[in-house]
Each structure stands twice: as structure tokens, then as C-alpha cells.
Amino acid sequence: MSQTRIPAAFIRGGTSKAVVLKRADLPEDETDWPVLFAAIMGSPDPNMRQLDGMGGGISSLSKICIIGPATRPDADIDYTFAQVGIKDINVDFSGNCGNMSSAMGPFAYDEGLVIGPRDGEAVVRIHNTNSGKLIEARFTVQDGQAVVDGDLEIPGVAGTGAPVALDFLDPTDTAGHGAFPAGGVVSRVDLTDGRCIKATMIDAAMPSVFVLSNEVGGDTTVLPEEIDANGPLMARLEEIRCRASVAMSMTADLDAAASRMATPKVAMVAPPARYSDLSGQSHAPDSHDLQIRMISAGQAHRAVPVTGALALACAAQCEGSVVAGCLPDGADPLNLRIGTPSGIVSVGAKRDAQSEKISAARILRTQRRLMDGFVYVTDTRLHDTN
Fold first, then answer.
1. In angstroms, what CA-CA distances link 265 with 176, 299, 343?
2. Is Glycosyltransferase among the key words of this record (predicted)?
3. What is the model's pTM?
4. What's the Cα-to-Cα distance from 114 to each of 14, 121, 358, rounded to whole Å?
5. How many CB atoms lie within 10 A of CB 374?
6. What domains are defined for the chain?
7. How far apart are CA 265 and CA 385, in angstroms?
């Protein structure tokens, strides 16, 4: 055959979609994975559409998830996430996708990879190999299958679904350089245009950098397309991201930081203000606690990555952070309401009173398997590394 076929499922998790593969169906040598994953997604594509693959031309639709047996005793499965470039074949394994994390427990349960009740609540402990952290997924099962119908509505997804509760346990220090790798809750970043901006660089669920929108010339009330079209702003945010990567000891220099697209993520934050989301719905200032516009793989995210929302919630627990400074009096850190381009997202983080360490961060998502069978890759693409 001129094509290679691989068993696969196509699944929506939260506001993302991904091709989900089993570790046993992939090459043993993991150095072969990047070219394969880029081919599956239809990358590289200078037209930014990925028409010759499973990708959808934006970062939230250009993802691969790999499920395999657990490699640590306190987990039920291993889960590896890959963010696939669109214009190029850059495949980044440095961070997790929290949205797709919501689908990993139900997938493992439905595939018989874990043992659970036939009816009731299933609990799957997921070892995310990207971060080395555990995620505890809780969801309802009926007649031996994960339930997908329910009443939970999440911004950015039409309709409702069954909730999946995700607890990201001990979420800080995913990269091994501490919760605040740059050395403090607030750092200063000097930019080439002469600006000196404040940033909170936190590693919680995912390494993230939060800056005030008014300090970088941005606006958190506008939609993603307007942010993407603002070339100087996007270049400024990318410079911040790259400089933060070096300051957080994630990369050795700015060139290495530029090639590592998935982490850290950079986001603009601001206090509550009236804005309209992608559906046209207007949100009053008292409907949310702060606003966020996060950049993901070079594009303004259409909602907010789950791991980005969790990092935001963790930063909100830290006095003096850029995020905490945006919160109104009375904001509840266990139920933080975030204004995103797709609506209001609720997320929370818990801080231990004695150690002051963030012990867990939680969010509710929905998920649904859309299709399964085989994904096909041409032999030409597998050997084309341009």
C-alpha cells in the first residue's frame, strides 16, 4: 500500500479536538513520532488549513494524544500530549492539554484499559508524561460506558454534555524549576521597544506568563481575530514569551525559546469589563472576576486552554501576582470566573493553609468520542521532513 494506517479515535475534549492513539500502535522509537504526527494532522501547510490531514488549521484542532499502560504505581494510565505545528512540522511535547485531558479517562474506560464499575462513578488516575503530574478524572458510567449526555454547558461548545471533573494534583513545578522559576511572584521584562513590563511567570499545570493588557498595548475585551491581526502586539507577546522561557530556565536562549511553541503560554489579563463573546453575547463586569486572552501556538486562543485557566487560578492564589491584582473584592479563588472569548469559564485552586502550597486545581469539562477506525498517512509524507 502507498499509505500506512493506524487505529485511531477522533475525540472532542472540552474546547479541543484530537486524534487519540494507543501507544502499542505507534513506532517503538519515539523519535519517529514527530514526522508521523505532523503527517496525520496535514502539516506543514502554508495555507494554514491542514486540508490533507485531520487538523483544522488552528491550535486547538491540531493535537495528538497517546494513551498507554501506566509507568508509575499510583496511576492507571499514561497520557502523552503532542501539539502539532500548522505551517511547519514542529511537534511540541513540552506541555499538556487540559481540555483533552478530560477525554482520556472516559477513553481508557471505554476501551477496557482500566477497571471500573459498570454503573456509577468511575475514577481514573492519569499520569501526564509531559508534566510528570497526576490528574484525577471523575465521570459517570452506565452499562459499562462513559456517559456523554448531560446538563453541563461549557463556553465555546454548542449544547450540553456529561461533566468530567478534573483534579490536577500538586499542579505546580511541572518543569522541575519550582512554582516561580524566574525567582519571584512578579518579574520585570525589558522589551526591545523600550517597554518594561511586569509579569507573573508561574509553572502550575503548565508554564504560563501573565501580563497586564494595558502594559503591552493590548485589549482583553476584543475577539481573537482582532488580536491575531495586530502584528506589533503579537510580536510583543511572542518576545515576552521567549524572554520568559529563558528566565524560567526552560530554554537556553531566545532562538531555542522561539522553536518551543507550546510552552510557556503567554496571556494578557485585565480586571472585569463589559465585552461580547464570539457568539455575540454581552457580559457585564459583574459576571466575571477577570478577563484573559491567551496566545496558543502563535494564535489567540478562541477560549482559554484548560491548563492556562488552571495556571491563572493558581496565580490568583498568590498575593502580589499580576493576576491577583486584577481581582475585585470578594472574588472566590475556589470558583474563579474568567471572561474568555467564548464566555465565562469557572475554575478553582486550593492552597494548603499550613504549607501555603497549592495542593490541587479543578475544572469541569465535557467530552465525546466523535469517530474511530483508522487514520491514514501517505508514505510520501512520512519521508518528507520539509
1. 17, 11, 20
2. no
3. 0.85
4. 22, 13, 29
5. 11
6. 3-163+367-382 (3.10.310.10), 187-353 (3.10.310.10)
7. 26
